Amino acid sequence: MSDAITAEGLVKKYGDVTALDELSFRVPQGTVLALLGPNGAGKTTTVRVLTTLLRPDGGRATVAGYDVVSDARRLRAHIGLSGQYAAVDEHLTGAENLEMVGRLYHLGAKRSRSRARELLERFDLADAADRPVKGYSGGMRRRIDLAGALVADPPVLFLDEPTTGLDPRARAALWDTLSELVAAGSTLLLTTQYMEEADHLANQIMVVDHGRAIARGTADELKDQVGGNRIELTVTDATELETARQSLAWVAVGAMRTAPESLQITVPVTDGPEALREVLGRLAEAGVRVRDAGLRRPTLDDVYLTLTGHQASGTDERAREATR
For 193-205, how does the pLDDT look when each residue is reduced to its tens digit (9 = 90+)? Predict the structure, then answer.
């Protein structure tokens, strides 16, 4: 299987801030790579370099066989991009926006019109097709922008947090659409803050932080890398949270997480069933009333927090500002 996307030692700097620090990866044709990481990790900068919107300061990348620097003009005809903010003309109707994209891709008037109507149906926007986009809700604008990325049936798609602002029904419908595209041979690179989205769509997940890849694998491989099990329990009274934390410290093999608003504590452990029995016994001895308790495998949320461990500074904001 050939690679649809290659990145070798990509570097991008903004003054003394390094947004991409020799980032390297490959995406085989017909697969999905999800980029995860905290704000400012370099995800948006990566997308903008690969879609020719930013010129890298070092390294090399190819998309669909074209170099992102020397072949940038030809490459643009072979990719689709939906950024974090809907790039639509609010004075045009939804249909006119999509037809305009088709004309820019040189599809011709007839094909542009038919493709626009097809996508309006797919994204449940047919009833709003002839209304100006300025009257669309945020979720509708997001959907028309995503439809625009698909007008020319590009072999490689870049989606930067594609389902932000969509309701669960629209998000599930988009997932189905993307799965169909990949099954037909398209390649997809997406950034997302939804762990469920990466788990559902991605063949491979890459966790980035400070412009570097710090982990890569399937969802199951990353969960195994974090290892162990998690005890999740909920106490009945907020005043008992700290007592519960102290009682649980002995069994934790990593950082405990506390959610005061839900009175929940999550504890990483090694010997799951035995640890759960011990924990419940110690909490009872300490007089902590437990409303609910259970054992589960690590999730991608656990992977994300374990591997990154913090919220990074907003480096990617500079990428957005640089291309506006």
Answer: 778 888 899 999 9
Stronger pLDDT, 22 or 137, i.e. the higher one: 22
Q: How far apart are CA 52 and CA 67, in angstroms?
A: 9
Q: Report DSSP state, residue 131.
A: S
For residues 33 and 10, the answer to whether their CB atoms sit within 8 Å is no
Domains and CATH numbers, the chain: 3-223+310-322 (3.40.50.300), 228-297 (3.30.70.100)
- Complete DSSP assignment for 183-232: HTT-EEEEE-S-HHHHHHH-SEEEEEETTEEEEEE-HHHHHHHH-SEEEE
- pTM value is 0.78
- Counted residue by residue, the chain has a size of 324
**DSSP H helical ranges for the chain:** 43-50, 72-75, 94-104, 109-122, 138-150, 168-183, 195-201, 219-226, 241-248, 272-285, 300-308, 315-322
Contact 92, 46 (CB under 8 A): no
Phi-psi region of 311 (alpha: psi -120 to 50; beta: other; left: phi over 0): beta
